[in-house]
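Exercise 7. Given the components listed, write out the predicted structure of the assembled complex. Treat all entries as one system.
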Amino acid sequence: MTSPAPRTHTQLIDEFTAALEASNSNVPLSVILIGSAARNAATAESDLDLLVLSQDGLKIVPTPGPLHVQTMTVTKFRERLQNGDDFAAWCVRFGIPIVRSALWDELLGSPEASEWPDWRQKIEHAARRLLLASSLRESGDLDASAEELTYAVTHVARAILLMSKVFPLSRPEIITQLKELGYPKLSEALVELSFGDRTDRGIKRTIVYVKKLLVHLDRDRFKAYVNGRRDARRRKKEASKKDLSATRVS
Amino acid sequence: MASKKERLRDARERLKRAREQWDRASVASWEPVEAAECVTGCFYALENAVIAAALAGGLKGTKKHWEKEELAKQLVSEGKLKTDISDRLNELNSARKDVQYGAPGESLAEIDLEELVSEVESFLDEVDDLVEDIEGA
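Answer.
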């Protein structure tokens, strides 16, 4: 028996948009191709990323294969643009409309569409992924740790590029952008995580390096995030101990 | 091709890892809630459990997330597991990626974390039973 031929990216997108429109008939929505595929820079490992925008919530349909869909209301998307969110800013600059509606055109014409993202927000984004990468490494899950670390490195890279007034492109292109900006070591870390062998030693080294970069970029913000997380964990442990003692007494 | 003994050893290792990830995820679900950490931990725990079940059941593992969803379906269709968690994996992958892009997105806000943690625990128990059955066979 032969297996069916894998569907092409175009087939996957067509299949998804047809199902989405059928489940949400007469609802104005926009489907935007984002990520490395929109930049024609996708690698064999890349997902196919879509952004779906609507006025209100939508009936979600299953996403086939490597298709990843992010749904958002226009209000939320606009709010993110206004707050200097780099993901929303990326979408309005490089997103390719597949299903176009007035919603998308209005967003493109809005004043916030040309806002420059706030690079400092990336410090917290990177710190969150870095802590996850670190705890996954401790659990011995090197693949998961490397994946989270890839996100952390990408967030740091975006912070550095935005701070230098260079708009970060898609992840495969960021590798070159970093090199051109004078960050060959960070660029190499991204190559190693994306395409190289994932060793415990290599992951540990990159975790330390990313931490140093984050401290260098904004020590106060990074420390505030890490300390906040540490305090939250401590409070939970204490609450758990109290619960345990109360159970024993009763 | 690995021997049955090797496959079962690797399956146990994966399950142990999944339990640790679930443990951290369940702490993250307590107040003050750390939603992104909880969802990410549950996602990896489920993935490791799926791979554990596949290894124990003599199926080939995979590294791609969407192929693990397919594997989860296959384990049910072949009668090895009762619970199909492929949709849950798909949902968690989306929520996790929303966080990757930056601030936690709308798909994350829709997830009931207590329910999720409990569902993952039950799935890990189911996989544990499967591995135990195959070990005893």
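Discussion: The interface with chain B takes residues 47, 62-63, 65-66, 68-73, 76, 80, 85-87, 121-122, 125, 128-129, 131-132, 135-136, 139-141, 143-144, 148, 151, 229, 232-233, 235-236, 239-240 of chain A (CB under 8 Å). Strands of chain A lie at 29-34, 48-54, 67-73, 96-99.
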